[in-house]
Amino acid sequence: MARNLEFAKGHGTGNDFILYSDPDGSDPLTLEQVQLIADRHRGIGADGVIRAVRTESLPNGAAVLDEDPDAEWFMDYLNSDGSVAEMCGNGIRVFVHYLVERGLADLPDGGTLAVGTRAGVKDVQRSTGGYRVDLGSWRLSGDEPLVSAPGLDVARPSLGIDVGNPHVVAALAGEDELDRIALSAPPALDPPIADGANVEFVVPEDPLVRDGVARIRMRVHERGSGETLSCGTGVAAAALATRHWAGPGAPHQWRVEVPGGVLGVRMFPTQDGEHVALSGPAVIVARGEFVFE
Ligand SMILES: N[C@@H](CCC[C@H](N)C(=O)O)C(=O)O
Fold it and tell me: Ligand 1 atom 3: the closest Cα is on which residue?
């Protein structure tokens, strides 16, 4: 049956999303519809599809509101292949920008909005030139697979980092290697990770630290989406892994360059352990109506 879907298209450093609102939670897309709308040839094209649902309308909404009664909106994030993801660091900034632009949330400069996600409630602050999201606490996942990809002579060791969703980060020898690896297929992980993982490749800049800020370059293959121009949670994981390798004394302020732009990462102490925050832009570039035949 034909139906129309009012959508917006946005991106954060080139990580692009289709967004739509479904306040009462009555209009989830099917797997096939998500795959079609995210298809770059037959649909609009996007790395992920985001549904804005009022938290109170969700079956598990009470638990989210227990965590934070201010989390009026929930970000229901799906990868372009229709798989479910716990969190999206670029997506959540674009999500908040979408809510603000549509008048669904009021957020003055400097103000903070609590957003429900499958990885818990996240605080997103509006600032000049973009948004800053507190991704919360992070942990070493314990996964340390060898990572291989076309363009790498030998498999590389990696470090598993969970920032709400799973990542493995591998360091490369230099810029040439980073530019050379082919990421059109998922990098092979040995041993594999049952639920899959986003895989980041990083190279430190020379010198690593300038004016108290550590700087790295990164490319990513995202679980459920393929190579993307940017991955916000991946950027945070890459900074955390590189700081881990750098040892004590490494800065807590990071600048991460991805093919789609530059993002900022900061690690800071809180009462419930160290948190990691991500800062960057969010843009809405189009609005339209998609017709599902
Ligand atoms: N692009 C996102 C991450 C999206 C989810 C990821 N592909 C997963 O499956 O965990 C980001 O900006 O963090």
Answer: 88
Neighbours of 173 (CB within 10 A): 11
The amino acid that residue 131 corresponds to is Y
- Quote the Cα angle for 154-165-266, to 5°: 90
Ligand 1, closest atom to CA 233? 13
3-state helix, strand, coil in the chain (%, to 5): 20, 45, 35
- Mean pLDDT per 10-residue interval, the chain, length 293 residues: 87 98 96 98 98 97 98 98 98 98 96 98 95 98 98 97 98 97 98 97 97 98 98 98 97 98 98 97 98 90
C-alpha 269 chain-centroid distance? 22
Name the residue of 78, 81, 87, 220 whose CB sits within 8 Å of the most ligand 1 atoms, as the mutation to test its pocket: 87
Nearest to 100 by CA among 64, 125, 65, 69: 125
Q: How far is CA 254 from CA 123, 236, 257, 267, 268, in A?
A: 20, 9, 10, 9, 12
34 is catalytic: no
Contact predicate 135/164, CB 8 Å: yes
Question: What are the structural domains of the chain?
Answer: 3-137+281-292 (3.10.310.10), 140-267 (3.10.310.10)
Longest dimension (CA), the chain: 60
**Is the Cβ–Cβ distance between 132 and 163 less than 8 Å?**
no
ipTM beyond 0.95?
yes
Confirm or reject: Cβ of 282 under 6 Å from ligand 1.
Answer: no
Distance CA(163)–CA(175), nearest Å, equals 26
Quick check: is 231 catalytic?
yes
Q: How many Å lie between the centroid of ligand 1 and the Cα of residue 14? A: 13
Asked if 165 and 85 touch (Cβ cutoff 8 Å), the reply is yes
